[in-house]
Write a structure and sequence with these properties.
By secondary structure, this protein is mostly beta strands. It has two helices and 13 strands, in the order βββββββββββββαα. Strands 2, 5, 6, 7, 8, 11, 12 and 13 form an eight-stranded antiparallel β-sheet that branches. Strands 1-3-4-10-9 form a five-stranded antiparallel β-sheet, with no helix packed on it. The termini are far apart.
């Protein structure tokens, strides 16, 4: 299952080779593969590669959100070309209740491109994950670029509106059964179960 981020957050075409994200069945989870231009802008976070990095969204990053649209529970995965990552579990819009979860993540980088592979365990996914969106960010200050797989539709933009990746109403269907097989059922998550009990 492949997704290409061809637009800015507000629906304009990106001005570079687009970021692609591939989701594949993995060992007790999903394998998320990122193929993206490498801008090196801003420079790498100070945190060690391979480790969680709080506020990674302030750096060059590709993000994927996996949503249960009925409960507004979602998994947010952020991957950085320098090897850092951030995994957040949210229950309600912007309501983080678990953060900096461990992640198997490896990066290969050349001068102008990077590829990342992350293993997302089913335990991180909220029950009944059915929707998805993905984003890419790079640049600094006025030149900061915010890109979205499913952007805010142009007719829904309001004057002075800023990028907001938690606009859950613009997420679209993620057909996990189509990816995993029609007989597949999403495994129950011990992590999410403790929130709902």
């Amino acid at each position: 299952m492949e997704f290409t981020i061809k637009h800015t957050w507000d629906g304009l075409p990106v001005s570079h080779e687009p970021v692609t994200i591939v989701l594949k069945p993995g060992n007790e989870g999903l394998l998320m593969e990122v193929n993206a231009p490498f801008f090196n802008d801003p420079p790498a976070p100070l945190e060690e590669p391979g480790k969680p990095c709080s506020q990674l969204w302030d750096y060059e990053v590709v993000e994927a959100f996996f949503l249960n649209d009925r409960t507004e529970q979602y998994l947010e995965v952020e991957l950085c070309p320098h090897g850092q990552h951030l995994v957040l579990l949210l229950s309600g819009k912007r309501q983080v209740w678990k953060e900096e979860l461990p992640l198997e993540f490896e990066v290969m980088r050349t001068k102008n491109k990077w590829e990342g592979k992350a293993h997302l365990p089913w335990n991180y996914f909220p029950p009944c994950t059915k929707q998805f969106n993905a984003f890419a960010i790079h640049g600094l200050g006025e030149d900061r670029k915010y890109e979205a797989l499913y952007p805010v539709p142009r007719h829904k933009l309001q004057e002075g509106q800023k990028p907001d990746f938690h606009r859950l109403e613009f997420f679209k269907e993620l057909n996990l059964k189509g990816l995993m097989g029609e007989d597949w059922k999403q495994p129950e998550s011990d992590i999410w179960k403790c929130l709902t009990n």
